[in-house]
Amino acid sequence: MQINFSKLSGAGNDFIIIDNRALAIHLTQPQINALCTRRTGVGADGLILVEPSLHCDFTMKYFNADGFPGSMCGNGGRCAVYFAFMQGVTSAEPEHFSFEANSNRYDAEVTNSETVRLHMLDARDFRYHMEIEGFACTFVNTGSPHVVIFADDINAINVAEKGVAIRRNTDFFPEGTNVNFVEITSPSSIALRTFERGVEEETLACGTGAVAAAIISRKLGKILPNSVKVTVKSGDMLEVSFSENMQNITLTGPAKIVYQGSVTIP
């Protein structure tokens, strides 16, 4: 079976995106894992199938790099919207899209060339004052589960070692969690490094992680405004904005097609 795909980057998060509106493509967990494996496959943090929807412009089916279905991926959602825009998927308003993901509706806009703003769900399930692996941890679910840890210098942290230990701490997180290390860089900006569940390593960016880091930073009074600049590992910047009551959350940042190709699946 030969499949056409596009490789997209959302601030460094990279995704294999496939147009499956005809519902002709059925990939197994090992096949998705092989496609996402770097050096021997296409290589990506995850794979997205763009499929039909009865209620929205399209459905986003997201799979982590391990090949298993994932929870919400913010940068993946932004890339899926840019892919739909470039593929000419019909929407009610030009450059405005709605899509389904994990039975939830999301809205987004292509705001200018290679920039997408995604409207997120409200953050929930806050947990504070957890001591794990010697770190003071805060937890929030922003569509995916996230631990937020503040540090004076995130570049001094071994994210792979510390991240995986917290991610696999089943006493606190029976289903696992993503782990974010955050450095406050100004009253309105933060720097972020993320260990992602499902990828099982540090990624160059994480959209739901950026939202988690910004919301927790604001809740704890570490930043002042309701619009936060988030510099991720790739060096790109995401912007997280929200209302005074920390609802109406948006995630804005770059999304671009890196290359397009075809691959043969045995």
UniProtKB/TrEMBL annotation:
GO process annotations (BP):
lysine biosynthetic process via diaminopimelate
List residue numbers at the site (Could be important to modulate the pK values of the two catalytic cysteine residues).
H146, E196
Q: Cellular component terms, GO, for this chain's entry?
A: cytosol
Q: Check the record and name the InterPro entries matching this protein.
A: DAP_epimerase_AS (IPR018510), DAP_epimerase_DapF (IPR001653)
The GO terms describing molecular function are:
diaminopimelate epimerase activity
> Organism's domain of life?
Bacteria
Q: Name one Pfam family in it.
A: DAP_epimerase
Q: Where does substrate bind?
A: N13, N64, G74, N75, N178, E196, R197, G207, T208
Compartments reported by the entry: Cytoplasm
Q: Which UniProt keywords apply?
A: Amino-acid biosynthesis, Cytoplasm, Isomerase, Lysine biosynthesis
Active-site annotation: C73, C206
User: Where does the UniProt entry say this protein principally localizes?
Assistant: cytoplasm
| Reported function | Catalyzes the stereoinversion of LL-2,6-diaminopimelate (L,L-DAP) to meso-diaminopimelate (meso-DAP), a precursor of L-lysine and an essential component of the bacterial peptidoglycan.
List the NCBIfam families.
Answer: DapF
Q: What is this protein called?
A: Diaminopimelate epimerase
Task: Identify the species of origin.
Answer: Chlorobium phaeobacteroides (strain DSM 266 / SMG 266 / 2430)
Protein's gene:
dapF
